[in-house]
Structures are given as structure tokens and as C-alpha cells.
Amino acid sequence: MKKLINDPQNVVAESVEGFVAAHADLVIASDNPEELFVSRAGGAVQGKVGLVSGGGSGHEPLHAGFVGVGMLDAAVPGPVFTSPTPDPILAATKAADGGAGVLHIVKNYTGDVLNFETAAELADAEGINVRAVVTDDDVAVQDSLYTAGRRGVAGTVLVEKIAGAAAERGDDLDTVAEIATRVNAGARSMGVALTACTVPHAGKPSFDLGEDEIEIGIGIHGEPGRRRIPLAGADEITDLLLGPIVEDLAVTSGDQVLLFVNGMGGTPSSELYIVYRHARAQLEAKGVTVARSLVGNYITSLEMQGASITVLRLDDELTALYDAPVHTPALRWGV
Amino acid sequence: MKKLINDPQNVVAESVEGFVAAHADLVIASDNPEELFVSRAGGAVQGKVGLVSGGGSGHEPLHAGFVGVGMLDAAVPGPVFTSPTPDPILAATKAADGGAGVLHIVKNYTGDVLNFETAAELADAEGINVRAVVTDDDVAVQDSLYTAGRRGVAGTVLVEKIAGAAAERGDDLDTVAEIATRVNAGARSMGVALTACTVPHAGKPSFDLGEDEIEIGIGIHGEPGRRRIPLAGADEITDLLLGPIVEDLAVTSGDQVLLFVNGMGGTPSSELYIVYRHARAQLEAKGVTVARSLVGNYITSLEMQGASITVLRLDDELTALYDAPVHTPALRWGV
């Protein structure tokens, strides 16, 4: 295992420490390291719906990288690839509460869903109105290791951006939850792994892939996908990812979409643009307009080489909310 | 070789095609693929000094990712790890010329320096006033594979940002060149490789590193550094990179610096923040103030795992220029 780390047990704590030091104008970490969360440096915004997300670490910049103006109010980084417990989620929920309620944005993994539910009940007992939206945009598989139903993957980034903008403009909790639900419902994703990744405290790769083998439909923790195939050209791989997305989302001529090509952490951006190029051409060939684009490492699997494609169906409101200013460590425009 | 590519010979062309499609609001590619360059979508800004950089591909987002408002006017991507020829550099220089002259920002590699010089002579013959600043911020080695003197590495990103801001505010060519020279003179960098990278058309790793071996002082093409050592903890590696930087730059108590931790392409951002954390603590222990920070993949070596540290000594003018709005595909703030 070759990593730029010290003690594998301290990876999350030390990384978050560096992260909040580098972005002290935007974020702070909780005082209590036993209930670790990251929240806006200025504290909760009074009267604004608070947005909280979280989950296992190892997917950076998700989620802490998206804490800031126009996106999340707090993020809870669990151990690597392991859900945070209810206590830090509750603490983050309280920190994010500005009196207008809190929305939990939860990727559909069994541990995350349970722990966010428990935290929501505890928050409710303390008088905080909490709603949750569970993301499940991965078309690769129904049910999987760690998950009943579809997994929540890169579409989560778009849910956080767009719902964050809705909260920032002053929408109430029901409306923000409805918009988050709408984004999730209009987003589909699928990924590919060229290599495995290694969880620091495990010390060896999470799974084995042959020298010339790739996994189509991989999960963000290396969970099995649809099938293993021999290494193929980027255009062919792109077709294998995009096909099920387009079919499931039923995008057709005249639709406007956001095309998001996400890197898994170890893939050069030049390769992501090669995937983007063909995905865009295929969408345009169907008469679909790629109205917005996002290309880069936004939800990763440590140092895994691979990528995912996400297509989000846009309408005027979602487009305007996507375009709204955002100022976070990992996503910034308009400010 | 596992990459998301099609024909290895088409990596640069297809990647640039995807890149300009994704960022069509900011950049365009040249019409002639034999003289490939990327420039601002709106064309040269009349009366503004034009900034042109370039070099071998494989270091993305450098340089094309930095074309846009407040940074470069044009970038010339050569073949992977191979300097572009004078013809596309000349074509980019002409495209960037708004009548106030053009600054070439050239990383100190023999091929780049020669080809930019030739292009500058050709541009001069066509009546364009060209000056060049050669970056050489890498403290690791004097003379190296491909280079006489020190290599130009991550400090180049800061030269492009700060000189770009100077050009944008209307400084003349001599002033922009002076500021670029000042940034280069105040920046020092050093990198480490945990793994090698594979040039697509070569098909095998550029060099070999043992299972538990890392290379301290690596160049961005995998050129040899200072020495190979057994894999060590992140703090220890950070000390090995930061020590020569601090010594060479002679930063002392009371100095204000920008601390830039750059990923080589295959390293998770969590690891970069672990390096940042310790580097910052070490600087602060010396009484140095880390006034600005940049952490991420900005000048890479394909999928190489590793990182570099750059320290730039700041003054009020350089800080203000660094803070000035920038809107490029890879770096954006204030707009």
C-alpha cells in the first residue's frame, strides 16, 4: 500500500485538519473529534433551511468539500468507506439548524440510511424539523453489497448543489426537499473501474481486477457492478455506461440535460474529457441538448482509476438553481 | 496499460475536443489540428498583453485549463510529455496578440525553451513584440534529464495566475514580464512520486519504482530526483520536500507565503490535505504566515501517485493579483 499518510487510523482526522486549515474562510471542524463534522465557518444561517450530508470518507471532495455558501451547511465524514454514527450526524444537524428545519441528503447505503434516520429522530426530539432525501441514481444494479435498491452515487453532488441553491434563495423545507427529490429522480449514473482501491486500515486492495480486466457498473466502494469485461476503448466503455442511463432516464430528442463525467480519484482529467467527448456526441446524436457540463473528481473512491457518467434532465428551474452562485472548497462559481 | 483512451495516438486530440466542448463558453481550439492550440473563446483582448504558455501534454489541467479571463490567452498542448513545435506556438501567439505584445511563459525544459524561442523570433518577424519568462522553481536538482538548470514545475501555475491578473488590469508587457519573473524568483517547489506513470504511446511505465520505494525530488515527467528511499510516513516525506524549499527560499519569521500542495494526478485529495497539514504546521512553527493556500491537481503527470509542495513568498501586490478574479476551466473565483 503506497499512500501519503501517517498512521492509517488517523487518515480522516489529519485530512480534515488540513482541509479546514486550508479553507478556514469557509469551513470549521467540530470541537469534539469524537463527533467529527465540518460546517460553515459562519455558523448556521438564521431562517435558512440547513442542508446536511455525510457518509464514509474516501469519496472526497464529497461531502465536506461542498460545505459553503449555496450548497451544504454541514458534512459528516465517517471512517473510510464506513457510515458515521448517529451522534456526529445529530451534532451536525444541530449546527446546521437555523430555525427553518434541516434536510438530510443521504446516499442509499444501508448504514447511512439507518444512522441518518436515528439522528433525525434524535433531532426531532430536540425540536428540529428534519426531512431526508435518499439518493439512488446508480442504474448499474438493483440491490448490492451494502444496499437495498439502487445505490446513491454521483447524482448526489447535483442534488447537493441544486437543493443548496434552493435553500440559499429562501425556499422552505418542503420545497427544498421536493427539489432535491426532483433532482434525484431526474439523474442517472453508472461507473467503471479500471483498478481497485485500498482502504488505508485494510492495507490491501478491496477487490482484484485482472491486468486487462475492468468492472462495468462498479459502486463507489468497489462493490460489484454488472460485469467484468476485457479492457476496451474509451468510446466503447462510454457506450456501455451511457446506454443504460439513457434507456432508464428515457431522454429523447428535445430534452435538455446536464452531463457530468466524474473521476474516481486516480484517473487523469484528459481521460475524463475523452469520455465526455463521446458521451456528449452520443447524446447530441439523439437530439438531446447538453446544456450544462461538469467534468472532474467530485465523488471519488480513494485512488481508484475509473470514471462515472451522470445525466440529469434539466428544466428551467433546475438550470437556474444549478447556475446560482456557489462558494465551497471544491465547487465555486459566481462569487 | 489501463487507460480510458481510444487510439493512443489520438489522446491529445480527443481530450482537447472534449475539453473545448465542455467549456465552450471559455475556450476554443484552433481550426488547424496540425497547429493545435486552445485560446479564449472571445479572441484576443485588444490593448491587453497576451499570455501564452504550453508544453507537452499529460500535465492537465496545465496549461489549457488555465485559459480564460485573468489568466492565459492561449495554451499549446504538445504530444504527451513532448514539446509542441514552433508552428502551433506561433499560431497561438498570433491568436493571443491584442496589439500590446505577448508574454511566453515557458517551463524550463530544453525542448520547450528552444521551440518557444523559435516561435518568438517568427512572431517578431511578423511584428509582434514577444517576451519570455522561463520558470525554474524546482529545487530538487540542478540539470536533469531534458533540462539545463532547474526544472519549471508547479510554480508555473502561480506565475500564470499572477501575471495573468497583471495583464488583465492593463499592465504593459515589461511590467507583466517583471511580475512573472518576480513570482518565479519567489517560488520554490519539490515533488515526490509513489508510483510511475505510463505515456499512452509508450504503453509501459516511464520508470520503475519498487513496491516500497518512493522517489524524492521527482520531475513532472518522471525524471530522476534526488534519491530513492523506502516508503515513509506523510509527515516525514513532507519534511523531505519542505526542507530544501525553505532553505533555498530562505523564508523566515514574519514572511507571508502561499502554500500550494499539488497532486500528481493519481493521489486522492485527502492525502494532499495530510501533506498540507504538516507543511503548514512546519511553516507556522518557523513564524511564517500561510496567507494563501491552494490544494489540488493543477500540474500533473498523467496518473502518477505523488505530490509536490510549492512555497511562494508573497508581498501585497502579488497577494492582490493572486486574489483577483479568474475564470478558467480549472481555476475560478471572484466571478
UniProtKB/TrEMBL annotation, chains A, B:
<protein>
    <recommendedName>
        <fullName>phosphoenolpyruvate--glycerone phosphotransferase</fullName>
        <ecNumber>2.7.1.121</ecNumber>
    </recommendedName>
</protein>
<keyword id="KW-0808">Transferase</keyword>
<comment type="subunit">
    <text>Homodimer. The dihydroxyacetone kinase complex is composed of a homodimer of DhaM, a homodimer of DhaK and the subunit DhaL.</text>
</comment>
<dbReference type="GO" id="GO:0005829">
    <property type="term" value="C:cytosol"/>
</dbReference>
<dbReference type="Pfam" id="PF02733">
    <property type="entry name" value="Dak1"/>
</dbReference>
<dbReference type="InterPro" id="IPR004006">
    <property type="entry name" value="DhaK_dom"/>
</dbReference>
<keyword id="KW-0319">Glycerol metabolism</keyword>
<keyword id="KW-0418">Kinase</keyword>
<dbReference type="InterPro" id="IPR012736">
    <property type="entry name" value="DhaK_1"/>
</dbReference>
<dbReference type="GO" id="GO:0004371">
    <property type="term" value="F:glycerone kinase activity"/>
</dbReference>
<dbReference type="GO" id="GO:0047324">
    <property type="term" value="F:phosphoenolpyruvate-glycerone phosphotransferase activity"/>
</dbReference>
<feature type="domain" description="DhaK">
    <location>
        <begin position="7"/>
        <end position="333"/>
    </location>
</feature>
<dbReference type="InterPro" id="IPR050861">
    <property type="entry name" value="Dihydroxyacetone_Kinase"/>
</dbReference>
<comment type="pathway">
    <text>Polyol metabolism; glycerol degradation.</text>
</comment>
<dbReference type="GO" id="GO:0019563">
    <property type="term" value="P:glycerol catabolic process"/>
</dbReference>
